[in-house]
Amino acid sequence: TYGPASTPTHPLATAPVSSPAHSVDGFVREFLHELNTNQGVTLSLSSVNDQYLALASTVKNYLMARWLETNRKTRDAKVKAVGYLSAEYLLGRQLGNALLATDLGEIAHKGLELCGLDLATLRSQEVEPGLGNGGLGRLAACFIDSLATMDVPCIGYGIRYEYGIFRQTFVDGRQVEQPDTWLSLGSPWEFPHPEASVQVDFGGHTEKYTDDDGRERTRWVPAWNVLGVPYNYMVPGYLNGRVNTLRLWSAQATKAFDLGIFNAGDYAQAVRAQTFAENISKVLYPEDSTPQGKELRLQQQYFFVACSLRDFINNELEEGFDLHNLSDRIIFQLNDTHPVIAVPELMRILVDEQGFEWDEAWEVTKSCFAYTCHTLLPEALEVWSTELLGRLLPRHLEIIFQINDEFLAEVRATYPGDEIRARRMSMIAEHPERGVRMAYLATVAGTKVNGVAALHSQLLRDKVLPDFSQLWPEKFTNVTNGVTPRRFVKMANPHLSDLISDTIGNGWVTDLERLRELEPYADDPEFQDKFREIKAWNKRRLTSLLEARDGIVLPDGHLLDVMVKRLHEYKRQSLKLLHIISLYEQVVSGKIAASDLTPRTVVFGAKAAPGYKMAKDTIHLINKVAEKVNNDPVLEGRLKVAFPANYNVTLAEKLIPAADLSEQISLAGMEASGTGNMKFALNGALTIGTDDGANVEIRELVGDKHFFLFGMDEPAVAELGAKGYNPITYYESQPQLRAALDMVMNGAFSDGDQDMFGSVVHNLLHQDRFMALADFESYVAAQAKVEEKYADQAAWTRSSILNVARTGFFSSDRSMRDYIQRIWHTQPMI
Ligand code: Z57
């Protein structure tokens, strides 16, 4: 039960919650109060960490009244909400965003200065919550930011990993992973609610029984359980007073767990049991675009989904809503297949616990979910073995079988006699072992299925789920991804933001298409100068950061060429590397003079999944090439390679605004969308890219002249694959490519060791699944075009301005509008 035991009589007890005064004095008072009462220190004895924590609490206090008011208003309005279900949220630092959302930046800066403190120093004390791997997790963070800013009720559900994505270090050029201890210096942004914990069951068996009404029912008799403790995070809208909630679940042992299946009375065993339960939310799987078929991973998925549904449904029942109309109250968006176990879980709740008839429950369930697919790689689609599922979640497996039986009956009715099709479409795969195809389950259960860029959605219909799109064409739709302009332009690029606002007003921050109004200035020499000066400032800011962070010294006046994203063969970091090696080789062998090179610094940022050998070898090679190239005087300092370790959101915010050239060079048809590509374009980098993912839409919008396209398109890739791809023929017929690969093979980057990178070269020559060699020639030609354009700074700057002006489409606000109109059918509150 909640609230006071008797009616409050003090006037303050019933007044709305108020915020501290929005003034320097109000801020300083609040800050010192937090420092004294929360941290328990005086200003003169406080550490930087004390100061940071007090500052975070101060900003939180400003947000609190808005959060409480948002919750009250949303509850009263009884509107439909979005339940975003995602195993990952790659949030980035919170403080800067909270200051921006509350318009406290200036006030905090002045107030802290008057306390003898520096806001920037305190901001750099924050450790970002890295609760995601890459694009998928960052997308979730952008989406909840946009929903709050658009005044749409949304609750994000996920896992509070105690350790987020590993911290990457390099030892002798090789990646070494360190645990991410993001909670160790305090976690001021979270609000734990142990009193609202929910229980999650696992294991055991099912039983049939006849209920009091004589109906045949099933009950699940689980073997063990854990507790899910909710931790709430504020998701502030930009200057609009809305604060939505992100609810992340942490696993804890229950009493029953300690004492039940594990030996009661055995203290050591009880502690082990505790550890076992808490393992569930211990660590983020560092896999990206590849599934991890591990039992613990399935436990994580079911854990957070069961907590989230229980949480939402309990609330609905408490408020007196009828679960028959659940879809008037919520739409659960499935961020990839990771949360798809929510489908049988909702069926189980409705049928087994709430006594719904199966058909009735299925109608409700079908209308409460929608599914987003983020990949086309066949090996990235999750399949859970029925052995594991049946052992961990026996009732859910039964429910999945029944959903599948009824679905296949529908298929057979629609296509009589087409048994091959029915088998193809079954949610149950038979090979290599019996397993549940989670993407099929999501497709059957979802009201809508969407891809994340136009090309990807088309390929999803045509290649991954063709039978399903034939059966239900209206189910399939596209929503092109987007990124939040608040974090990735306004916060990350303050001077560009000021220039834009001075030129066209500040409406663009929440209406990004208005960047179009910059187009007339693309030819204005004065505007161009200011624009270029901002790029130079961003480069200087990056230079000092990398020097302090990694001891890397970036030269002045270089074209800054940036490739930052997870390390994956399909993304083709090796193609970028071959270009670098080739430039180097041509100078070393005297084919060109160092003075012919356009001064260029290539920056890589990439983490490899710890078990992904080829990716880790590629990281090693990049570092070795960097070492060699950076120290060889033959290049006269005109080619540099920088590979700062531990690329994350915090580094992205400094790197992207400094970039001249954005590398988006995946094999066509492989990158579902990409979102880094959008961030670069919005910050004025030109793209060199293939016809893949959202690159296609970026190029369409900015225009061919302002985008460096190269490589095969998707049909050409498919054709070459069908014909039979043989990478060695490119090696044999292209001397420049051959020389670059020979250089690696001959040990030029491994002190003469010809084995060190043998597997990387061997793979490229004899397998090259992602056809890097086939696109090499075209890539090199496109890079020559880049250099030609860069030589004409006015032309380059013009293109750069036009990239900013024409990419407003890629705001995640627009993505949210698309989801709302075509998938969710929810409404903003105002
Ligand atoms: C992930 O970050 C993405 C796809 C996945 O299947 C998994 Br698992 C993780 C990425 C895509 O590779 C990007 O192309 C896309 O932009 C991003 O998801 C967001 O949709």
Task: Show the helix and strand layout.
Blueprint: H1 11-14, H2 24-37, H3 48-77, E1 81-85, E2 89-90, H4 95-102, H5 105-114, H6 119-123, E3 130-131, H7 135-149, E4 154-159, E5 167-171, E6 174-178, E7 190-192, E8 198-202, E9 205-210, E10 216-221, E11 224-236, E12 243-253, H8 255-259, H9 267-278, H10 295-318, E13 330-335, H11 342-353, H12 358-368, E14 369-372, E15 383-385, H13 386-392, H14 394-414, H15 419-425, E16 428-429, E17 435-437, H16 438-445, E18 449-451, H17 454-464, H18 466-471, E19 476-478, H19 485-491, H20 494-504, H21 525-550, E20 559-564, H22 573-588, E21 600-605, H23 613-631, E22 639-642, H24 649-655, E23 661-664, H25 676-682, E24 686-689, H26 695-702, E25 708-709, H27 714-723, H28 728-733, H29 735-745, H30 758-766, H31 772-791, H32 793-806, H33 812-824
Parallel strand pairs: 1-4, 1-13, 4-12, 13-14, 14-18, 18-19, 20-21, 20-23, 21-22, 23-24, 24-25
Antiparallel strand pairs: 2-3, 5-6, 7-11, 8-11, 9-10, 11-12, 15-17, 16-17
Helix pairs in contact: 2-3, 2-5, 3-4, 7-33, 11-12, 11-14, 13-14, 21-32, 22-23, 22-29, 22-31
The structure holds (1S)-1,5-anhydro-1-(4-bromo-2,5-dihydroxyphenyl)-D-glucitol.
InterPro entries: Glycg_phsphrylas, Glyco_trans_35, Pyridoxal_P_attach_site
Biased composition (Polar residues): 1-9
Region (Disordered): 1-19
